[in-house]
Structures
1.
Amino acid sequence: MYVPDEDVAARRRQIEVVPRAFDRLVLSSNCGGRAFLRAVPRQKEGGYRMAIKLALLLVFFAITVAIGLYCRRHATDVNSFVLGGRAVGPWLTAFAYGTSYFSAVIFVGYAGQFGWKYGVAATWIGLGNAFLGSMLAWIVLGRRTRLMTQQLKSATMPEFFGRRYGSKALKLGASAIVFIFLIPYTASLYNGLSRLFAMAFNIDYTVCIALMAGLTAVYVVAGGYMATAINDFVQGIVMIGGIVAVVLAVLNSNGGLSAAMASLSQVQDPAVSSAPGAFTSLFGPKPLELLGVVILTSLGTWGLPQMVQKFYAIKSEKQIFKGTVISTVFAVVIAGGCYFLGGFGRLYGDRIDVAASGFDSIIPTMLQSFPPLLIGIVVVLVLSASMSTLSALVLASSSTLTLDFIKGTIVKKMDEKRQVLVMRVLILVFIAISVIIAVFQYRANVTFIAQLMGVSWGALAGAFLAPFLYGLYWKRANRAGVWASFLFGAGIMILNLLARPSFPPLLQSPINCGAFAMLTGLVIVPVVSLLTKPIERNLIDEAFECYRGKIDAPVKKAA
């Protein structure tokens, strides 16, 4: 079919509208001064290929449901349902932390987007996630969070704020922020699945969403936190094996690491940078923007309820060190591997029209020619990553709304059995809401919803990071400082959503604005706290009493 030169891009977009019909597009050699764009039909997939992928999915589904049903008998009260009885070992806690951290948003969305923008320098994002978002978070927050939350008998982050600072209003305010921003963030988890499932199984996006949501609902409702922790461990193993296999396969398909780097060094994009080798340089074409991404995606975990609550549940403070090591290694492999993989996305630029199909198409395009077994592993990998994060989010949302808002405010008296029942019902409600939002946004292409998903992480971390950190370490932090952080963190992200063009160029990006909100909160809380009245001494003494335990040290005999 003849296509004029100026219409090649338009024709490419037309054909990409029906991706099931074609495998790829080829621009033919010029013939008489004219260019031809040829669509190569997708090869029919043999039954055995589909059977391999379906078998992997069915085994994964069976294991997931079995774990949920097994843990049901242990999830009978609030403590066991929300925190696993505070008796979860370091391996399960570390994997639960890591799998909640990294979802399809990372593997498909961020890895593709930032790999395209920064090349292999995007690997710094993964390393930042590992050493700032995982290792340092465990070192700084792990032990103190475990001890103080047990001392204050708090099972959620809003409940921690309410008891640490002696304010029911703070607890309700934090609950509102969690509800407003965690639900759209939950909906964003489905986005990365659509292209992979369409590529592997040729099924509709809505079916992908329903499948993932239904399976997650079964095991979370049945087994609570312990079911999610055990499933996270299984899913984490799948993620590690999958990402290693994918990275090796992509490098091998491009002639190995050296050949792939050499090819990438020849890629130039004047819209990004005119410097040769920009996408293989140490810090990429835009180091400052890259730093903003590192800060938001790494430091942000310190203030996210679904992440911090993992420290509540670990068995004892003695397990913190082991959990730190496991979590860090896991993050290096998963996050480092994802972003390193995304850095080679531009090698597939002849098959991708980013302007037409978006950044989410990059990773699926890289995987398109893989053997069916590897594609099946990748689908299970991304499904695992998304389900583990979804389970953490809906458990955090339901527990927060039940324990911090409904109990004692709407319903004055709720026994343990009723609280667990309400949380189970709310898990189903929140999953249903997230499905509706995701499908509506996909069908109607409502940009406002997509933008709200983008600011969720920044709003939550910007509001909560500083009050939580200072609450663990600094006795002078008070209610006014916490309110100031809540209002500034959530407020600036809402303004960024509604009036983005009015912001300075650097802060128009939700990622940079979120990083700015977190860093500013670290200044706002101490300044406001020092200028206002401190909280009651008895509250401080009660909260920090847990750190005064006796420490036994070995005694050496004198020589």
2.
Amino acid sequence: MGASFPNVTSNINSALTAQDAGERSILLVGCMISGTASSGQLIENIVSKAEFNTYFGAKSQVAKAGRALIDALSISKIKPKISAIGLTDNGSGVAATGSIAFSGTSTAAGTLTVYIDSIRNGKYELSVAVGDTADDIGTALETLITANTYSPVSAANSSGTVTFTANNDGTQGNTIGIKIDGTVAGISATLTAMSSGATDPSLTSLFDPVADKRYTSIVYPAEWGTSTLTTFTEARFNVDNKIIDGVGIVSKNATYANSNTALDALNQKTLAYIPNALVSGSKHKGGAIFESPIVIAAYAAAYRELRLTVGANVSTITTNGQSIGGNFFGGIPYHNTPFSLLPTIETGNDFSDEECVELESSGGWLLRNNPANTVVISNEAVTTYKTDTLGQPDVTFKYLNYVDTLTIARDYVFNNLKSDFSQHILTTGQLIAGRPMVNREGFVARMMGYYANLSGINGNNNYVLLRAGTEEAKAFKQAIEDSIVVTLSTGTITTESIANIVTQVRNIIVNFTPTFE
């Protein structure tokens, strides 16, 4: 190239646009069987059922929950990222077992429907002919279960008694339900619930691969206890110079008494616990919502993350006309969210209304039938947090909505402070035009800009998490102005702020007074 003067450089810089809150992501943890993943390995960006099957073994607990996540998220092209950690069984683990014992000889044709672990994914129809023996029926059931690529149990028939053995050792197998519908003349069936599963994998280094990665929802087996999970999540709620918080979501089959005792012992803002009434009827052994607990937790995590994923299609899980997910969903109630992938609860199997009130007060997130008994819907989504460090009642983190609202608002402010004040000069004097500088007044002004976006007072409806109004904005500004300290020697701006968040419509009280005029 020939000489050309003057030398000219023309750069195109990125626009000074507001930064969004962080992306949404789900981490799934559970027992694996075999596959290409190593025990304890973090597998990221999983997008299909086939990948879960390949990595962790199609009949494993973690693959089962993974397929449920894929199903629940399939309503939207835009969705949160999924990662998973599978653990192989403990060498000393014991597999849970249960059974159905058929007896008699059929005197009429009919159909028996057996469900193992799931109404949706564990249905086996047995066509019974006149003269079929218990052994014939047992053999037919064994054949169907063996042919199911995804069955969480193996089956072995002996003279009409079909014994089920969990594919994974440990306590997760005890949650596998057994249910039978239908009657055939001459045939009876006796169910024995899955039990005796024992000795779970070691959890000592479970979350080591995660390091500083952020997962906004973590699906976890409640049967492993919650201490390893909450020790991890609580420590990540407030950390220096990064945002890595997340909420653990678990579900557990248990009686009302045991559920309430477990919830009363918990007090974590980062744990959502879904109790499922334990049924022990002659034809139903397992949760009232007849689905694997880890699958129930997976559906809850999927719907939470879809709600909060910008641009996600949420039309089938909302009842308020909002069809596109986004950060503003932090303020929209979870209650009335339909869980259409779950079976409805049979009459008499759910917790009573009085029990539900107490369970929610203790920190239980309840899923129950709608009034018409046509679909399972969410009650108020609560965390297990009940009291502050002094043991005083505290609603700050009681509702999952409050956690969502506060963490998204913090996320937004954090990301924008990082962006807006990169390579800036700090001064207590005046700002000089054309130079990246900030002083006390400039910082307050920038924070008020964040408030305008988070509240929508400027017409931005992407967040609507803080209250929009002149007095609210004034209080927000006053709190910053009253507390801000600029320390030039260390280059530090310190301030206190308030988060005057929106809340959710939970109660409406209308009193009528009769008149006769």
